[in-house]
Amino acid sequence: MRVRFAPSPTGALHIGSARTALYNFLFARRHGGSFIVRIEDTDVARSEAHFEASILEDLAWLGLRWDEGPECGGPAEPYRQSERQGLYRAAAHDLLERGLAYPCFCSQERLDALRQQRLAAGLMPKYDRRCHGLPAGEVERRLAAGEPAALRFAVPEGEVVVDDLIRGRVAFASDVIGDFIILRSDGRAGYNFAAAVDDAEMRISHVIRGEDHLTNTARQVLLLHALGAERPRYAHHSLILGPDGTKLSKRHGATAVSEFRELGYLPAAVTNYLALLSWSHGEREVLGTEELIAEFDLAALSGSPAIFDAGKLDWLDHEHILALDGTEHERLFAATLPAGVAEPAIRALAEAFKPSLVRYGDAPRLAAEVLEAPPPPRELLGEVAAAATALRHFAGLRAAAGDWVAPAAARSLLGDYRALGPDLGLNARGLLRPLRIALTGREHGPELPFVLAALDRAEALCRLDRALAGAGAAGEQTTSPPSPQMPGAAEGGET
Question: Is 373-492 a CATH 1.10.10.350 domain?
Answer without folding.
Answer: yes
